[in-house]
Amino acid sequence: MSSGCLVPFFPERKIMASEHNRTEEKKTYTVGEIAEMLGISDKVAYTLVKSGQFKYVRVGRAIRVSKSSFDSWLEPN
Q: InterPro entries under this entry (predicted)?
């Protein structure tokens, strides 16, 4: 008797995939993460991002800020 599942379930693949995601270094920040790191509101963080201080891309409606660009901006000159 079939369980009705068309795709076989491979729990070991799911575990390997989640371990890979944890070890992979993050390349972008969300605006919320930037707001939290800087101790500012999301609204102020969006204004900062839109001002062109660092590189960002849109993924659908979401904004992702380049980690390297933000980290360089954050470092003292």
A: DNA-bd_dom_put_sf, HTH_17, SinI_DNA-bd
